[in-house]
Request: fold
Amino acid sequence: MNLRQSLLVRYLLIITAALILWPFALPLYYVPEYFFDNDFKRKVIYMDTNKIERMWYQQAVSFDKLDVQQINKKIIALHNKYPEATMLWVSGTGKTELIIPKHINIPTQWIYHSTIEFMKQNASGDQFTVIEYIGGDRNQGFMIFQVPFVLTKPVNMSVIDDKFLLIYDLVIFASFLFISWLFFTKIRKRLVKLQTAMTQSGENGIPDQLEVHEQDEIGQLGQAFNHMIEDLKSSKERELKEESLRKQLITNISHDLRTPLTVIRGHSHSLKKETLSPRGQDSLLLIENKVDVLSQLLENLLSYTLLSAGKYPMHKEKTDMLRAVRSSVASWYPVFEKEGFEVQLQQKIWIWDIDPKWFNRIMDNLFQNILRHAKAGQYVGVQLIERDHKVLLVIEDRGPGMNVSSYEKGAGIGLSIISIMLKEMNFDWEITSSLNGTKISLFEKN
Amino acid sequence: MNNKLLYMEDDLEIGSWLSADLKQRGFKVIWLTSGENVAEYMEETDLVILDIMLPGLDGFSIGQRLKMDFPKTPILLLSARTSIEDKLHGLHFADDYMTKPFHPDELVARVEVLLRRFDKISQHFIQLSHLHIYKNQKRIVDVRSNSEILLTAKQFHIFDYFLCHPNQILTKEQIYEAVWGESYIEGDKTLMVHIRHLREKIEQDPSNPQIIETIRGIGYRVRQ
Reply:
């Protein structure tokens, strides 16, 4: 990845810029004041008191052995440079030689108590005062430089006193926050976009690919995501292909097995019309029976494969159960009648949300099992009854029960199909089986 | 009855056996191994038995085309394909659907039902117990007294519906919806009343009906 496009590098840049620019921020605040405020310019020379002290000392030293006129001239010249200051000098005799500007409070002749007075005044006063001996020699006299503290006071940097500085600082801080916020909002926005794209599934239940414009970390994440989607799509396609192949295979096998079964069935039927010994007749019956079992098994195998692969279309609808049960029983009645079964139907008007075709299939499987495994009971009862505020469809036989091995052998797939179908339709069932019969109850899940 | 069946089946073993079996039962059978030139035979065909897996054009396509050109000829699909989709697809145009391996008796029963439903049975005379029924004249004669039994239009319609579906158990819903053309509401006594009146006319002992059997809780049946 290009370093310039890295989000990390970009954020570090922001932080570094902030750190570097912060020291410049404060002087920057005074730049306009310096240029536009004359007063400020005037004041700025007094601010460095050390410099003033040094200057005054150097001047004092340079005045060594100069006469009064010369010193006066020099001090006047100096005063032009520091117009706000009060300057005076006192000769070795204690006479005040020059005061600029004229000052009332300064004694013209310095004696002991007037000096004390002056010192006292200054100690508690509002003046910045520098006193130097001329030429560094106390006998030549001394010179005084006074300037009000107001002028020497350094620029006010306290945000408490300077409301504008406070605002300025706040603005600078806020702008840093704003830039950071912009930076992270942009990241956040892109992440949210990414998240939305990842959760919204397009066709086939797979999210669509993203458009990736940037090359940074998030852009790379997007590209990785696109890769994943591509893989997912191709695997889904592969799965679909395999699925249809499997379905095709099972359909073909089922078809290929059914064709010879049809021939067997047909010829055994033709055989029936020939004169056969009783043993031959029995064998024929057995053959026909097994053809039935085999074709049912095939049918169930196909259904089971389709069902477990979720390829068996289900269309639930509000179904008049009385009608559905009745028509299912009606289609099986002749077979039961032929086998000598007693068929009992107890009715109740009831509506279930169920796929009628699946329901028919369930009933077919149940009846088939009863015919095949519970013939001994000679009874089939179908009841739609209400128990504990729940409507049950009870299918009952009086056969030898499910624990008898013959039941398990053939009924396995058929029962699995019923189980899957019921589950898919949000139904449940209960089986109670004893040696005296089997009771299967279907009911809606809560 | 000599109804003419057109049978399309590419499997030679099944085809030869079933056409022989059908011929033995008195049908005239034309057996084709593919759907080519099928239209040539259609004019004189009463019913088509169609296998779905055929070389060239498959049974679905042939069936759809035949149904479009000859809507009055019933088609029975015979297939080793058993998935529900196939069945649903088939029943879009076909009138019945049977899966292999089928029982020849059942096939014939279904063929007869279809022939009746499409009015292809040339014989319009039915003898049922003591009744002689002339369907096309809508006449029913009691042989014992040789007197005509007069039914109302609804009664005849119900009885005719039974005769078109012999040996089948018909539920109340089925009968009501076929005869009245509207959906049956549970508890409606109209049909029961009509059947009671019908029985009074045609049964020897209406309290112990022999012609229109009651299958308790399910419906009615007329055996032939």
About this structure: The domain at 4-117 of chain B is CATH 3.40.50.2300 (Rossmann fold).
